[in-house]
Design a protein that fits this description.
The protein has a five-stranded antiparallel beta sheet with strand order 9-8-7-10-11. The chain is built from one helix and eleven strands, in the order E-E-E-E-E-E-E-E-E-H-E-E. The radius of gyration is 19 Å and the shape is elongated. By secondary structure, the chain is mostly beta strands. It folds into two domains: 71 residues, Roll (SH3 type barrels), CATH 2.30.30.30; 80 residues, OB fold (Dihydrolipoamide Acetyltransferase, E2P).
């Protein structure tokens, strides 16, 4: 179904709230998983209803998966985390300039928008904290979550060095 380099299949039993999965083709953080049985006997239909929030847009997504149709799992995005030193923040676009461990500049990461907020300048909690602390002159380290070929800022902390 998906690009093998970006996703993998995980059995339904291993899915948990706050984990990640692909819902209707979009990478989402799982907010709810509910198993349902429709009907009784041989005509029973086992289903899983999965809800999540789109990682990049904050839009809610819901899907119902019929387990009797040979579905044995969900597609989940492969994720990784890494820390970088913050060099600059563009508070208008949300793009950040970071310093890698190799001393190179990384400029393709972006702050996340607030969930469901129509205001294009509304950053999520971590994004707002990053902008505020950077503007106050703090030296910061950002933790980035890499998912589906994009990097999102998920943590902001003071750089001890």
């Amino acid at each position: 179904m998906g690009d093998d380099a970006l996703t993998e299949w995980v059995p339904f039993e291993e899915m948990k709230k706050r984990g990640f999965c692909i819902i209707k083709g979009n990478p989402c953080r799982v907010t709810d998983i509910t198993a349902k049985v429709k009907g009784t006997g041989a005509s029973a239909n086992d289903r899983v209803v999965i809800s999540g929030i789109h990682i990049f847009t904050g839009v809610k997504s819901v899907d119902t998966i019929n387990l009797t149709n040979a579905h044995d799992g969900l597609e989940v995005p492969i994720t990784s985390k890494k820390q970088y030193m913050l060099l600059d923040v563009d508070s208008d676009t949300g793009f950040v300039s970071l310093l890698t461990d190799e001393g190179e500049t990384k400029e393709d990461a972006q702050l996340s928008r607030a969930q469901g907020d129509a205001d294009e300048q509304a950053w999520d909690e971590v994004g707002a904290e990053t902008v505020r602390r950077f503007e106050e002159g703090e030296s910061l380290k950002l933790t980035l979550l890499s998912i589906m070929g994009k990097d999102l800022v998920v943590k902001c902390e003071q750089d001890p060095g």
